[in-house]
Amino acid sequence: MTNTGTGAAATRNATSTWRNWAGNVSARPARTSSPASVAELADVIRTAAEDGLRVKAVGTGHSFTSAAATDGLLIRPDLLTGIRAVDRKAGTVTVEAGTPLKRLNEALAREGLSLTNMGDIMDQTVAGATSTGTHGTGRESASIAAQIRALELVTADGTVLTCSPDENPDVFASARIGLGALGVVSAITFSVEPVFLLTAREEPMSFDRVTSDFDALVAENEHFEFYWFPHTGNCNTKRNNRSAGPAAPPGPVRGWIEDELLSNGLFQVACSLGRAVPGTIPAIARVSSRALSARLYTDIPYKVFTSPRRVRFVEMEYALPRESAVGALREVKAMIERSPLRVSFPVEVRTAPADDIPLSTASGRETAYVAVHLYRGTPYRSYFTAVERIMTAHGGRPHWGKVHTRDAAYLAGVYPRFEEFTAVRDRLDPERLFGNPYLRRVIGA
Length: 445
What we know:
Layout: E1 12-13, E2 18-19, E3 26-27, E4 31-33, H1 38-50, E5 55-57, E6 73-75, E7 83-87, E8 92-96, H2 101-110, E9 113-114, H3 126-131, E10 148-154, E11 160-163, H4 169-175, E12 184-191, E13 193-194, E14 197-206, H5 207-212, H6 214-220, E15 223-228, E16 234-243, H7 252-276, H8 281-288, E17 295-299, H9 301-305, E18 313-321, H10 325-338, E19 347-352, E20 367-375, H11 381-393, E21 397-398, H12 408-414, H13 418-428, H14 437-442
Parallel strand pairs: 4-6, 5-6
Antiparallel strand pairs: 1-4, 2-3, 7-8, 8-12, 9-13, 10-11, 10-12, 14-16, 14-17, 15-16, 15-19, 18-20, 18-21, 19-20
Helix pairs in contact: 10-11
């Protein structure tokens, strides 16, 4: 049966299995729908509720968890894209929820505007990225969700709520990182600023030096991050700071060599070899950790913050109190060195300032992130379990969109405002129309 309600939302019975980007999560929804307007979105949600179907919205599938999986109605926001309004005086842009970050960044650049900070991947939709707490690294500038100034949310009864610090402020506080539990986000208003230049300084550094100087490196740079290559004492660091210019982007040849040939093409080959013959991984790691040389370039923000990620992987990331990060990372290094594990992907470390979002991984505390990855198809549970044990011993908060095993009992203990979020959920979705097994585990029934 095809059910389009009062609009042409292209709702149809599902005939295929949905899979996420990494391929570790799949679902077979009863229906899929691609509404082209907020009115159509509200209509398909009401119809699904009448028919007893759970509802989830999915973006580009870059979450490694089953946050968006459903056997009910799967909403695809492919037609809810584009910029609604640019308000230069207020310094905001309002964008449809299904807009990919790449398209938003390119459109903002044409307008001479930019987000203040962003993560290193821009394939996600704006709603998917913010709802799971996507972040970059920054001394003062926080996650993408922390840059939200207002949002539009369609709730379980089809009501369209406009939320901001002045309108439905309790919903706004929680829905900026809402995990899809409060409703379906249909539009987001971000804070933006005139486009600026960033100078990126990338250079190798030893593990001992970068961990000893970590606090100073964070304090001295607007954006600092590093990657440590397991089985080696080598790291690659990146420092991004605002620049007066002129722009000096990477040359096309060197940019292709660094970003495509080495970071994607040859790395793909190395990961495939390591998966087939794990004993080669330490030697590959020693070569890989020395392959990228120092470089300096200046460009507009999204071209500096983001990088192409064509090698598919599975990831777990924990947010720690910043003062615990170095100690925890040293524990991870020691654990790998004394274990039979062979880890082909570097470990990524980033930072964020405290923010005021109830379920933000940086809620109420200065934060450092430790992310571990393994090549898709490689058994990851032993490695992730060992790392997770270290992270939780330091009061770590798992990234909502990345692999973890924590439940509501644990999470309520590390999020002081956890009950504030669940109270909003109880009010907006008492029947759990937007629920699924993942949300039952991490938020509760």
